[in-house]
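Just curious: can you write whichever protein you like plus the matching structure tokens?

***
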Amino acid sequence: MLLRVRPTFRALAAAIVPEAERLAADGWSELERVVEEALAARPTGLRRQLVLFIRLLEWLPLLRYGRRFTRLDRRRRARFLAMVEDAPLLLARRGFWGLRTLVMMGYYARPDAAAEIGYRAHLRGWWGRGLGPAGGSGRKPARPGTSEPMAGQGAG
């Protein structure tokens, strides 16, 4: 689906998450795969609307700057997207926030991005990283004044 609007999508993604400009081909493929997988579960009509919205974002700057979005410099891209984000038309704001959410999900879901920002989540939470209560003993925290695990923690 994104293949039809790939250059514009990538320009928008780089304007939304500036670090995306440094992505190599495999990084872009991974970002787009995450977004495509998220969109696969959505209705066909919504996917069509997203493609149409991306196409509109490509051509609308022509009215203000005399150039398409992909031909704008960074500063003008940011200024244009800020106008869309604050547009009086609710549909434009919702479209932008949906696109922004997809781009951020695609960028930050990549393992390389998690490593870049120091994100080290573990299925067992702090205990999985040896940082839980009781000096990383792996025991669940007890309710104050008892030896029973806190509600929702289970027996361990």
